[in-house]
Amino acid sequence: MRLSSVxxxxxxxxxxxxxxxxxxxxxxxxxxxxxxxxxxxxxxxxQMTWAEVQADGLTVxxxxxxxxxxxxxRAISTTGTVVGAARIIDSMGVTATDSIVxxxxxVEILRNDSGISIIGLIPxxxxxxxxxxxxxxxxxxxxxxxxxxxxxxxPPTGWEDALGFALTALSALPRSKISVxxxxxxxxxxxxxxxxxxxxxxxxxxxxxxxxxxxxxIAAPRPVITPFTLRFVLDETGGRFDAxxxxxxEAQARILEAAVQAGLTGEARCTxxxxxxTPRWAEAAELALAALAELGAGSVTFSDADITLAAVQGTSQxxxxxxVGELENALPDVFALFATLxxxxxxxxxxxxxxxxxxxxxxxxQLRGRLSDPALRELADSYAKARFGSxxxxxxxxxxxxxxADWPVRVLSGLxxxxxxxxxxLRVTPDNVSxxxxxxxxxxxxxxxxLLSDKLGGAERxxxxxxxxxxxxxxxxxxxxxxCEAGLADIMTEGRITFEPGxxxxxxxxxxxxxxxxxxxDQCGDIRIEIQGHTDSQGREVMNEQLSQARAQxxxxxxxxxxxxxxxxxxxxxxxxRPIADNDTEEGRExxxxxxxxxxxxxxxxxxxxxxxxxxxxxPDVSAEGTxxxxx
Length: 632
Description:
Blueprint: H1 2-45, E1 52-56, E2 59-63, E3 65-66, H2 69-80, E4 88-90, E5 93-94, E6 106-112, E7 115-123, H3 128-139, E8 144-151, H4 159-172, E9 176-181, E10 184-190, H5 194-207, E11 213-219, E12 229-235, E13 238-246, H6 249-262, E14 271-272, H7 281-295, E15 298-303, E16 306-311, H8 317-330, E17 336-340, E18 355-359, E19 365-371, H9 374-388, E20 393-399, H10 407-418, E21 423-429, E22 432-439, H11 444-456, E23 462-468, H12 481-494, H13 511-524, E24 529-534, H14 541-561, E25 569-573, H15 586-592, E26 594-599, H16 613-618, H17 624-631
Parallel strand pairs: 2-4, 3-5, 7-8, 10-11, 13-14, 16-17, 19-20, 22-23, 24-25
Antiparallel strand pairs: 1-2, 6-7, 6-9, 9-10, 12-13, 12-15, 15-16, 18-19, 18-21, 21-22, 24-26
């Protein structure tokens, strides 16, 4: 009986062990099949049918031949979304390249006043020493920077012709960039004038080899004009320009046509330059030239938005008033017109004595009329030159006898008052001093009144007719932070920042976009910006967050390399947490892989709520003593 019991117990334990082994084996088989099926389905959905999957217990072995190293890495990442990364065994291979394709040979040559630099990849058979020798002969003592690399391959067809012509062109282009490829050359250069540009183009077109394709862009920069000026004089000999400027060819054509209608004689030139004239510049010039033609003689002078129309002596007062009134009503609002008509002089009757000083918008001063003696004329001329500049004063005053004793005081006080205006007219007569014109100083009227009252005496008569105009806004105001943020968004819409697959390395195709961003940020000044990195939802969340952080940091490093002040810039990776499109499509995933620039705005402070008297009374922290003190 005792032996039978032992056998029964032993059999029971043996049966339990066998059942456990069978159950464990079945469980392992279920796990293997589940893992293999799920991984296989996920890889097929990702269009990686080349990958083979085999489950062995808890491990999953990936085999097969990947078309590229990036595809192999992607297969591992995709499998990691189904099973843990520690369970994956990588047994995949990568398709071997049958043959190494010859690299693209190209050269970039830059020449300026600092010397020549050359960078690129050339065949080993190209005579590198001869290239550098020819360049050194062009620049004398200036440096030649050699950044060339070589590769031992057969030169492609057209390579030697392109490189030889590039060196020939370099000798004729002291400020240029030349890009050389086999059978193709691109030239960008700067000429000092339109004539020099035409000569360069003619020379290069004559020397280019027949089989070589050439793209040429030679610019002749326009002069920078500030301020925009125009002066047209009409007299008995006809019309002529003393100065003429326009912002483009269309405005130039309109102004010259208006000058012809006004009586222009001979050939005239109107300089087209870089700058920003007053809006509707050509329209205002056309109106002013037509008004001058109607007067028959005189001059019209523009300095940005200020216009001076000067009629000649003898012009009918009624005609003058009509023409000036029509012109004032027709001119765009931004322009200010100042019109002068010299008083008539009778050869037999001189009329009442008068001294006039005219200040034009461009700062030119004319002194005319009568002065009491040569010493006063010399003093008035010196005083005006000290106030307005020695090159800006023209004196044509006469010396006559019989003027009042206080004439010098009136003249010099009037000139000091005129110096407080942007443009205007001073008239001095025996019984009055009149100052008319325009100023950008709101306090000029009061200052002139105080000056004349102090110099002439309170009993003397003087008139002030000065108008105030707001000064033109400065043109160098930096953009606001909001404008900078909007500008960065526009740049990112036109050209994205992309990276090498699975890395934080910015691709070469994104460098132009980085340059545009750097140019804008250089204008924006000291603003606070967060550079945000985002990814799609493929791969593990932690890996995506790390990758987005590294990419945002790469963009920040690129800006620092471009000398952008990044003290208030931060780089932040958000991974897959902020999608802007559907991650279930390739287009959506592509949109989600992005870099964004966002302003860091200060959070508004919430003011502490004011307490009512009832709340203060109910506050246990307010002591009875304190309440008593307040009542006292």
